[in-house]
Amino acid sequence: MVAGMPAIPAFPDGQLQQLGYVVENLDDAVQKFKETLGVPSFYIWRDLAAGMTEKTYRGDEADFQFSCAFGYSGDIMVELIQHDSGESIFKDWLNERGPGLHHVCFLMPDGGHFTDAVQAMADRGHPVAMSGRAGDARFSYADTVDLFGVYTELAYGPPEFLAAFDKIKSGDS
Hints:
With about 170 residues, the chain is of the alpha+beta class.
């Protein structure tokens, strides 16, 4: 943290969108979340990072791969993440802590707000731990583990990208 600054910036134009869990086996985790927590359905996206660009891990260019399952509990997205290959904060989490809650995600309304929020987090001593881009959609994980016990993901998705999440939320995936 930087002296004289709040621990994290306010995100007045962003919204808490997601809770992300790192899991060892995606299919098993989907079943557990359905049965135990009542998340009705998940959309599974294998090899999610395959087409991504600008991938970084701890400040270096990276070539990680992961698969995800997306579901909703009310208005909050539940993301289940399975590390597949390469160096990533998902792999680190599993090795150091095991499966469990990994991050909260704030969705930014546009690319400018996303860029500003990433910089504001870094200015407050929470550097980018991992990031990537898929077309105009972007994500960045700020290292807030010491502060909150989890990472803080900042994300931006253009309207056509977010429409896919709306379909998942409505059960029409």
